[in-house]
Design brief:
Length: 456
């Protein structure tokens, strides 16, 4: 494994006003891990190759379905996210204590929501020929606020323990120690409902690796389905806020804008590196990411470049080094393409292996209202997501006073009086509203029950 940094003078249209930063060569452990896993157990090779074929076939089928469907646009879906932090007290102190962890979590969610919805301001500096390719996944990552048993969580759990990521050679025991309480880490929450992120110290004994992301399919193909999720190094966790105590220290150069997780989640949603699956330094023009709209690329781009930047595989406009699945670093990343987004969206569509993550928005709601009223109301909303009309059913219709539907800015878009209920069901029509997420407040005499619904 390489272990060195390069100080680079940065310039050009893609860089904006940045001056210089040290750059990691091996940002991500996926290729190294894959190589180690396959060499430790050659029988995995067959399962792994089948996974590559299957994930592409699923994405192609999804793309055909989308192009044939009258309703191409899908609404925003909510994915509950759980952060599991396993660090020593000394390491926790380095990133500002528990307060620092919480700040990093909030900023980290903001970054992935911005990047995955193409709201990042630096899309303005995507080179003109690549601009039409900018993809938007339309996904809303939110902290989980309910544990699998229904009790409250902040969305972050911390175990103070000297857990070092113990390397690739001991696969699978080394890689999954963070993901098992019995081995000093923290068990995932049900990974068919929650996206699990583990924040650990990968870096100290593993060169410059900042993260590793496994899709549910990839983890299953390698015989370890519980490993689905992302391992993130604590030095590349969240977005640096200069000058704020506890929030500006201890960031790796080139990894201080929270985009290590943007990259690793790309792997979670079955993307490979933009140059293919080969380890850094051994790429070729045959190996590819199997995405139609990303240019062929020979190898990782380990420093920011000036457009157009060509290589042995692609002349003309050259390679798309500013893609999140390359290695240029946080300051230079700009986009996922539409083709990449289609591949990712196929995993959270009906039938995809991460579909379950989109079906539990209630896990992001605080269970403060989960009390006798929640139980008495026995409230169900269906279908959710909806294309316009949906029904709310209650266990006890007599006590319903009113249903209000609010958009995400708090404006009321629909109101139904409890007297208008049909037995124990109220029908709501959102057909004249924009696609997105809405809050449904059901007011009973005893209190209010709140749900979210997605309008597609
Ligand atoms: Zn990677």
């Amino acid at each position: 494994m390489r272990k060195f940094s390069l100080a680079l003078a940065l310039s050009g249209m893609v860089m904006g006003g940045n001056t210089a930063f040290a750059q990691h060569t091996e940002r991500c452990g996926n290729d190294i891990f894959l190589k180690a896993a396959l060499s430790s157990n050659p029988s995995l090779e067959v399962a792994y190759k089948q996974y590559l074929v299957d994930s592409k076939a699923k994405a192609d089928a999804f793309e055909r379905e989308m192009s044939n469907s009258a309703q191409k646009a899908t609404g925003t879906v909510i994915i509950p996210v759980m952060f599991h932090v396993i660090l020593t007290q000394e390491e926790i102190d380095k990133i500002g204590g528990i307060a620092g962890i919480n700040k990093r979590v909030i900023s980290q969610l903001d970054v992935i929501n911005t990047d995955y919805n193409a709201r990042n301001a630096d899309t303005a500096t995507i080179p003109t020929p690549f601009k039409p390719l900018l993809g938007n996944m339309n996904v809303n990552f939110q902290l989980a606020h309910r544990k699998p048993d229904g009790t409250v969580t902040s969305g972050v759990e911390v175990r103070v323990a000297p857990l070092l990521f113990s390397g690739y050679s001991s696969y699978p025991s080394g890689s999954d120690s963070a993901k098992k309480t019995s081995k000093g880490g923290l068990d995932p929450y049900d990974n068919t409902k929650y996206l699990n992120i583990w924040v650990v110290n990968i870096n100290s004994d593993n060169g410059n690796v900042l993260g590793i992301g496994y899709s549910p399919d990839f983890a299953a193909a390698l015989g370890a389905p519980d490993n689905a999720g992302v391992l993130l190094d604590f030095s590349a966790f969240g977005k640096r806020t200069p000058g704020v105590p506890g929030f500006s220290e201890f960031y790796e150069s080139g990894a201080d804008k929270g985009r290590t997780l943007t990259h690793e989640l790309g792997h979670f949603f079955t993307l490979w590196h933009i140059w293919g699956n080969t380890a850094v330094g051994s790429g070729n023009c045959t190996d590819d990411d199997d995405i139609g709209d990303t240019p062929k690329q020979k190898d990782a781009t380990t420093s920011c470049q000036t457009f157009p930047y060509t290589d042995a595989c692609t002349a003309g406009n050259g390679i798309m080094f500013m893609n999140y699945m390359d290695y240029v670093g946080d300051a230079c990343y700009r986009l996922f393409t539409k083709g990449q987004v289609t591949r990712m969206a196929s995993t959270i569509s009906n039938g995809g292996t991460a579909y379950g993550l989109t079906q539990h928005p209630e896990l992001t709601m605080y269970p403060t209202a989960v009390s006798s009223i929640e139980e008495k109301a026995n409230l169900n909303i269906f279908p959710n997501p909806t294309t316009g009309v949906f029904d709310i059913s209650f266990g006890n219709a007599r006590s319903l006073k009113e249903v209000r539907v609010l958009n995400m800015t708090g404006q009321m878009v629909s109101k139904v009086n409890g007297a208008q209920a049909n037995g124990n069901t109220v029908r709501i029509d959102l057909n004249n509203n924009a696609k997105g997420i809405y809050i449904v407040q059901c007011q009973f005499e005893e209190g209010t029950v709140v749900r979210k619904i997605t309008l597609q």
